[in-house]
Every structure is written in C-alpha cells, then in structure tokens.
Amino acid sequence: MEGNLFMKKLSSAQIRQMYLDFFKSKGHDVLKSAPLVPQDDPTLLWINSGVATMKKYFDGSVVPKNHRLTSSQKSIRTNDIENVGHTARHHTLFEMLGNFSVGDYFKKEAITWAWELLTSPDWYGMDPEKLYITVYPKDQDSKKILEKVGVAPTHIFEAEDNFWDIGQGPSGPDSEIFYDRGQEMNNLAEDDPESYPGGENERYLEIWNIVFSEFNHKPDNTYEPLPHKNIDTGMGLERLVSVFQNAKTNFETDLFMPLIQKTADFSNGYQYGQDKATDVSFKVIADHIRAITFAIGDGALPSNDGRGYVIRRLIRRAVMHGRKLGIENAFLYKLVPVVGEIMKSAYPEVLDQADYIGKVVRDEENRFNVTLKDGMELMDNLIQATKQNGQDTIAGKPVFKLYDTYGFPVELTEEYADDNGLKVDHAGFEKEMKAQKDRARAARSDAKSMGVQDALLTDIKTPSEYVGYDTLAAAGVLKDIIVKDKILDKIADGRARMIFSQTPFYAEMGGQVADTGVIKDCLGNVVAEVTDVQHAPNGQNLHTVEVKSTMVSGEEYQLEVDVKRHNKIKKNHTATHLLDQALRDVLGEHAHQAGSLVEPTYLRFDFTNMGNVTPEQLTQVEQIVNEKIWANIAVTTTVTDIESAKKMGAIALFSEKYGDVVRVVSAGDYSREFCGGNHVDNTSEIGLFKIISESGIGAGTRRIEAVTAREAFEYLEGQNNLLQTAAIDLKIAKTKDVPVKVESLLEKVKQLENKVQSLEDRFASQQAANVWGNVQIVGKHSIVAEQVNVSGMNQLRQLADQWKAKKISDVLILATQTDDGKVNLLTAMSTACVKEGLKAGDLIKKIAPLVGGGGGGRPDLAQAGGKKPAGISDALKQGVQWLENQENN
C-alpha cells in the first residue's frame, strides 16, 4: 500500500513507549495505568477511558502537583460485546493513550504537539498527506492553529457533532484526527457519500481525539467558561498499531496474532484466515482473554453479578467459540501467559500473576463445562418442544435464558436451530436483552461522571503544614475561612471550613478517618470544635468546624486533637498492616488489599480472594496478628524516594498515587507498606486483636471486621458472658463442658426428630388407605383431590410415591395445612397423562393462587406453598375443574 511503504516499522510496545516519551519530553508526568476496578467511583463498573482516572483533577476536587499528565490506560467496555469479532475494531479491553492538561496549556500547545508527534521523523513520522482533521464549526481558533502548524486547508473538515459533552461538568469542542489507509482498505466505493474523514467507512481511520475542555455544563443546562481550561485526549493504541503494521483490522497485529496462533494450535486443525465464521471465533477468543486476564489481575473475579458477571460472561463466550473451533477441553487458561508476554514491557505484573490468573480461569472453565451439559440439554428440549408444538421458531425468552444463564451466544443457538430446520425469534431475544440492560442501568448510581469545578477551593493555594506525626497540639494562624463558597474575614458562629498555617489534625485518607478535637484562642477558651478534616484541592488540610465564638482570619489559634480518640485510631491502623501481611501469609500473595476503614472503635479490611475464607484460616490469621502484637515489634517510619521504598520491599496500593517522596511504615521485618497514616510506636500498644466477622461483599472481594485493645477485651468478655449463661441454662458447672453438653443434646434432638419422622410417615400411610378410596372420574380420567393431615411436603411426596407405585389414578392433588398455618400443595400426573400433554406444573400454577402462593415443577410432579389455608377447599375443586376443561379441549 503506497501510503505505508515508508511507514516506520514499530512494535506495539515501541508505539506505546514513544507516545509516553514524547509527552514526557514536553514536561508531562507519566502516570502508571490505573487498575481496571474503579476506586471510590460508584458511577463506573470498569475504568473505561483514560480520562476516567483524571476526573478528580478535571472537576477541581484535587489539584495535581504537575498540571501536565500522560498515560497509557487499560480500559474495558462491554456495552456492545456482540460486535467483537464481527468488526475490525471492537474490543472489550483496549489501551487509551492520552495527554492531559489541568488548567495549564490549551489549544495551541495541544495541536502543535499532536502534529509534531504524528509527523516528525524523530517520532511517528507519518506522511502529513495521509492525515485529516475534523473541527467544531464554531471553533475557528483550532482551525487557524491547524493551518499554522502545516495542515492543508483541504484536510480540515468541519463537523457539527465535534462537541464533547457528557452532561454536568467540563465540556467543550473537540478535534478528531484521521489516517487515510488508502482506497484499497475501504469497504465503500470512493465516491460513496460516507467515504470521507468522519464517515462510516474503513478507509479513513480515526486515531486520535483532542478535547478542548473550556466550558462548565451547569445543572440548569447552561454553559459558562471554565475557571481552568483543560486538555483531554484519547488515542486508541490498537488502532494506531494497525496503521503502523499495515493490518486490515486491529487483530492482525502483534497485540493479537500470538493469541490467535496459539488458539489455532489448540483447535481441531483450524487456521486463521481460512474461513470468515471461524475467524470470528479466533478474534473473540483473543479479545476476551486479554480482558479476562487484566480484570482478574486487577482484583475482579467471576461471579453472578456486577463486574464478576462480566468476567464470567467473557469466559463463557470464549469457551463457546473454542467449541466452534473443535476445542472441547479447558484451554483459555493456557493463553494467560501469552497475554503476559505480549504486554510485559508495560505490564510486567501480568506474568508475575500468571499462575494465579490461570487457576481462576481454569476453575471457571471447568465449572462452565459442567453447566454446558445442562445448557445443551435445555437446547435439545427447546428444539423438540418447538417441533412438537408445530412451530418453526424458537421463542426469544428461552433463547435469552440460554444466552444469559448458560453462556450460549445467540448465533450458536441459531446454528443449532438451523440444523433442525428452525428459526430464532430475534425480536423476542432483543426485548429480553434490552430489559436486562435497563435493569443494569437502573441499579447503577445516577451520579454524573464529573462535578462542576469548584473555582474557589481550586484557587486557594495558601501553604499549610501537617505536623500531626510529631505533636497533637500546635499553634496555627487561621489563613482562610470559607462559608458557602465565600471567603470571610471573620465568623461568629455556625459551620465553616478553615485552613491554618499548620495543623496537627489528620485529614481523612487511606482509610484512616479524620481527627476531631477543639480550637482554642490565646486565653485557652474553646472557640470551635473540629468535626471533620478533608484535603482541599491543593492538598491543604481543610477543617470543618462548628464555631462557638468569633474567629478572625490572620489570628493565631491553638489546635488540639482529641488524644484518646487519635490513639485508638493509631492502634487500629497498625493492626490493619499486620492483618494485611497475615492474610498474604495464610491465603497467598493474591490477597490484595481492596479497601479499608480505620475508626476509633473498630477496623474494616477488604481484600481479594477466591471463595470463602475457612474458619481455620481465620483463626490462623488472628493468631499471627496477635503473635506479632505480643512480640513487642518496633514500628518505624522511613521517608524516602519511591524507588528506594520499592527496593525496601514496601507494599504499594494500586489505587493510590504516590509522589516523589513517600513514607514507609515498617513493623520490624514483618510488615512494610507505603502509608501516610498514623501508627503506634510498638505493636505491643495494640494489646489484643480479635476478628468479629468475615464476609463476602462482592465479586471476589471479602471483608474482615475486627477490634483491638479495650474493644477486643469487651467483645471477648461479652462472648464469655454468653458462654456462662449457656452453662447455667444447661445446668453444668464449667463453661469448658458446654460444647460436650450441646453435642449430647443435639444428638438427642436428632434421635427425637427421627422418631417423629417415623411416626409421621406411619400416620401418612394410615391416611393413604382412606385417601386412595376417594377416586373421582372426570371424563376418561380419574383423579384424587384430597386434603390430608401430615406435617409437610416430605409426607406429601411419600404419598405421591405410593400413588404412583399403586397406580391409584391418572391425576393427583394433595394439600395439607402445616403447624405454622401455611399450606403445602402437590400435583402429579401419570405417565399416560404426560404423554397426552397434561402437565403437573400447569395444574399447580392454576390452583396455587387460591391458597395465596405459587409454585412449579416437572410435567409429572409439581409443588407449591401458600399462606391461605382457607383456600384449600377451593383449590381442590378448581383442580378438578381444570381437568374437566382439559377434557373439553
């Protein structure tokens, strides 16, 4: 292809690194790709773009140290998963290259640098004649700058939709850059109306979008200029690589081909490029295993909801496409190291975790292979039922169930249907799909992606020093008083936010709650109470206070932290560090911290782990933490540069951003973590550690709640009191004998229950003699419809077994009222009735509402429960009437 004859030959790793190096040369900080699992952002299921990690900077809630930032951010989007493999560029996981300016440079620099990176021989070296750019019609400034840097006027197009707006928050015009891949790459005729940069075609490929964020979209849908204008760009790495490697689609590149080739090795002789249908399967597998690998590596695990459901769905889709290539056994897990090798230059952690990720994937594959048998059985039943009913189309609802529950892609169901001369109700399937998406959207937060910039706080750059590591009481000059977005000189009472020249109050961060306390004047009088402390956008500790007496800006005050509360927080914080390491020791290195909360009276620690933590493991973790407490280990803090900290072996959280200088908190040689919080001087100060609960809170995430010191003693004392009360009730002298006594009582209860069960079974059999004599004839069928006096559903099923063995009648309806005032119903059909098309499930659904309940079951046996015993008689009569109606039909 002429346009690519002189294109640089670059690998994906080189393209990514060159982008980051270029913007680093322009004064940008290079940010590490954030985890795919969002931190503290309920509006997102996944990190879905580069800018998603920059929201706190763009909405002004945090001011970065460097206002120029660049990254290659891994992202996941699954809103159009069905298109993956069928189009040239749809992916579930992709990398977004981006450069960002937070109130620093704007259009001139952004456009000039973009053109330099793309066309300079020192960088990408693209042919300028191959590049086209669209601009927003009202953004004539960008158009002029483009012409000034050398873009031919004929290569600039105005487009009305070039305005980036996601609702409330920053918005503005954008410019998209397209690469002309040549007419031979086009899927349209050259004179087609859509064959232009920005049209729906394969020739002009969009590679970069530059957003000039210059307006605040306000809640009342008006726009005003942003106090601080921003630049937000996004360049898809996969698209860019396809250009440099002259690939028809993104898949024929070094990001995907090793995965496709490895999959071909597993297949039953299939090769990529031989057949369009099998090519789709190769692409789906290559795409999905990338997303699966990175998602699990970042802490998500397969499950039935949320992001865990997404992973499960991706694995199942990939497995099903593997079957279309003749791959019957688990194979996806073998592709995990291939992903790691492809991405190792930017993401070495994938190879480090490859064994763990592979185990998770293999377990899920094996689990699905079991489910698959049930799905195939349902598929066969659907086909047979459709044929028996004389229909030629499988209904949409069961097709969606196959897709949603069993992981069958709809196109696979269509293939099976077609093999049997049937069609699939696509409209019905899409209706169910839409309903599911609507439910998912409704379950998500309606919070907007970004907030409106707070210009007032963003512009406050008053220096403020935190001195709480060394003292809990310090004098500080009141620098700023903020009340309802206004700066005041003084305040007499009410709530306000304040910044002091220095403060001993800790601002909430890293899971540790803020300090509270009081503020005193020069005479020692309390003039305000501090109720909360947060970080202002420029990093100062921003105190929320309840003012009791007049406070004046510029005056000095004494700030005093509540020492007792602070010390309790310190103990719990250090305990979380010990707990973190103990969990790694017991469960494995995959047990990453996923969040924490350090309060005065308890601590909460979230971590990643497959499955439940056993009681034995919890006991082991608890024992380890207490052993470290009782070992009197010194807790020390080291302030150093980030590289030195990593060499020390300090654990860093992916969710945290660290500056050049970091604090490392060490409990001897046992625990060493990056941490800006407060800690005890020696582990012995914690006194005692006790886990009070362990539970699952989401896909692959567990939560431990624990207490220390006095609260741990009080918890144990409470447990001991309960044990003593139990001993008194059980009439035993020593609490240590309680378990033996309880075990003995449980055995007696079990024996009594067996005796009761035996008596109930005997009673039920005795009643059967009377019941079986009441056979009614309805047309050509016979029916028994009776209320019996038994304990519940077990006895009803036993009676049904007798009925079936003795062939008492064609149809059976039994009802009983339980001791708790509820109703059990059972219906059954003889084999002959089932063959005629009569179903016990249909019958139970007809009569169950009369007893205030519902139920279902198989064609030969069904059951239901209800809350209205008074309706039993009507239900039995309605059952007989149902059989009469069936006779008449």
TrEMBL record:
Compartments, record wording: Cytoplasm
Annotated positions binding Zn(2+): H573, H577, C675, H679
E.C. code: 6.1.1.7
InterPro entries: aa-tRNA-synth_II/BPL/LPL (IPR045864), Ala-tRNA-lgiase_IIc (IPR002318), Ala-tRNA-ligase_IIc_anticod-bd (IPR018162), Ala-tRNA-synth_IIc_core (IPR018165), Ala-tRNA-synth_IIc_N (IPR018164), Ala-tRNA_ligase (IPR050058), Ala_tRNA_ligase_euk/bac (IPR023033), DHHA1_dom (IPR003156)
Keyword Secreted in record: no
Coiled coil segments of this chain: 742-769
Pfam families attached to this UniProt entry: DHHA1 (PF02272), tRNA-synt_2c (PF01411), tRNA_SAD (PF07973)
Broadest EC class assigned to this enzyme: ligase
Cofactor details (free text): Binds 1 zinc ion per subunit.
UniProtKB keywords: Aminoacyl-tRNA synthetase, ATP-binding, Coiled coil, Cytoplasm, Ligase, Metal-binding, Nucleotide-binding, Protein biosynthesis, RNA-binding, tRNA-binding, Zinc
Cofactor(s) the record lists: Zn(2+)
Domain named Alanyl-transfer RNA synthetases family profile: residues: 10-718
Catalysis: reaction(s): tRNA(Ala) + L-alanine + ATP = L-alanyl-tRNA(Ala) + AMP + diphosphate
Protein family (similarity comment): Belongs to the class-II aminoacyl-tRNA synthetase family.
HAMAP family to which the protein is assigned, alphabetical: Ala_tRNA_synth_B
Function description: Catalyzes the attachment of alanine to tRNA(Ala) in a two-step reaction: alanine is first activated by ATP to form Ala-AMP and then transferred to the acceptor end of tRNA(Ala). Also edits incorrectly charged Ser-tRNA(Ala) and Gly-tRNA(Ala) via its editing domain.
PANTHER family reported in the protein's UniProt record: ALANINE--TRNA LIGASE, CYTOPLASMIC, ALANYL-TRNA SYNTHETASE
Domain remark from Swiss-Prot or TrEMBL: Consists of three domains; the N-terminal catalytic domain, the editing domain and the C-terminal C-Ala domain. The editing domain removes incorrectly charged amino acids, while the C-Ala domain, along with tRNA(Ala), serves as a bridge to cooperatively bring together the editing and aminoacylation centers thus stimulating deacylation of misacylated tRNAs.
Annotated protein name in UniProt: Alanine--tRNA ligase
